[in-house]
Design a protein that fits this description.
The chain has helices at 33-37, 53-65, 67-72, 86-96, 111-116, 159-168, and strands at residues 12-17, 27-32, 41-47, 77-82, 103-106, 119-122, 128-131, 134-139, 142-148. With 169 residues, the chain is an alpha+beta fold. The mean pLDDT is 94. The strands form two sheets. It has a seven-stranded mixed β-sheet with strand order 2-1-5-4-3-8-9. The radius of gyration is 14 Å and the shape is globular. The protein has six helices and nine strands, in the order E-E-H-E-H-H-E-H-E-H-E-E-E-E-H. Helix 4 (86-96) links the parallel strand 4 (77-82) and strand 5.
Length: 169
């Protein structure tokens, strides 16, 4: 399992891009995790699924609310990672009004999530293999803080905790 001090695993995440530009075409674009995190300070939070109750009502809105404060603390980007496809993440991002604040990164086949060791088995609930709820501060591709939630909890991966950690790093 991923831990503080580890480099992020190699892999690709997808993001649905609404507007063509910056070398990105419309629609889903793939991003190399290691290249995209190099020389940056990134606040990453992951959650079990788009449109799920806690994720939609608390997790994403908290990061949107604190986006400017996180950027003032030196965070270059904020990523939301979920085991959903890029189309779902793009639609959810539109609904949550994340544009310019939180990048909605899709891990459709759970490859990145499996590589981190932070999977959550929700097969019995009809949701398949998903991501645990967590947050981490990543500086130049290295995990500086890692906040993993206990099953069914939302206490340590919130934006307020990440903000305090970003201010301290």
């Amino acid at each position: 399992m991923l831990k503080i001090g580890d480099k992020l695993p190699a892999g690709q995440l997808q993001e649905f891009i609404e507007v063509e530009g910056n070398g990105c075409s419309l629609g889903p674009n793939s991003f190399d995790v290691q290249k995209t995190t190099a020389a940056k300070k990134i606040a990453i939070f992951a959650l079990p699924g788009a449109y799920t109750p806690t994720c939609s009502a608390q997790h994403v809105p908290g990061y949107i609310l604190h986006a400017d404060n996180l950027k003032a603390a030196g965070v270059d980007e904020i990523w939301c990672i979920s085991v959903n496809d890029a189309f779902v993440m793009g639609a959810w991002g539109r609904d949550q009004r994340t544009q310019g604040k939180v990048r909605m990164m899709a891990d459709g086949s759970a490859d990145f999530t499996k590589a981190t060791g932070l999977t959550l088995d929700l097969i019995s609930r009809g949701m398949g293999l998903r991501s645990q709820r967590y947050s981490m501060l990543v500086i130049d591709g290295t995990v500086k803080t890692l906040n993993i939630e206990a099953p069914g909890k939302f206490e340590v991966s919130n934006a307020e905790t990440m903000l305090a950690q970003a201010q301290a790093n």
